[in-house]
Write a structure and sequence with these properties.
Length: 131
């Protein structure tokens, strides 16, 4: 069976044989452009209220706390809005069958948490934003 799986905004075509749990092949799928349908009979309606731009992921202000190595987040020790002090444990991460604590580099307030328990992260991935 073939599936299309999206990981970190990249789409992959994955082929899996029945009765086995091994991936037998993957190929990266090129994004397909979406064509817009324009109605030429549409009426233009003006509004006086300004339209806010959409929020973008990772644009929260503050200092990013990044993953020091690739691994899996096994515990999130803080919540958004929590005040933390330098050295407080923010995450517990499993890497190479060892647990490592990721701590706050400075005093601050957690403004945004980017990953949750069970997330796989790479070196340099932003885990949270600290103000």
């Amino acid at each position: 069976m073939k599936y299309i799986v999206t990981i970190n905004d990249k789409s992959y075509e994955v082929e899996v044989e029945k009765g086995q749990a091994n991936i037998v092949g993957t190929t990266q799928v090129a994004p397909v452009p979406v064509q817009a349908v324009v109605n030429t009979n549409a009426t233009v309606v003006e509004t006086t209220a300004p339209v806010a731009p959409p929020a973008q992921a990772g644009t929260s202000s503050g200092e990013p706390i990044k993953a020091p190595m690739p691994g899996t987040i096994i515990a999130v020790q803080v919540n958004q809005g929590a005040a933390v002090k330098k050295g407080d444990v923010l995450f517990i991460m499993e890497a190479m069958k060892m647990e490592s604590e990721i701590t706050a580099a400075k005093d601050g307030v957690v403004s945004q948490i980017m990953v949750g328990k069970g997330a796989s992260v790479s070196t340099g991935d932003i885990l949270l934003m600290l103000q």
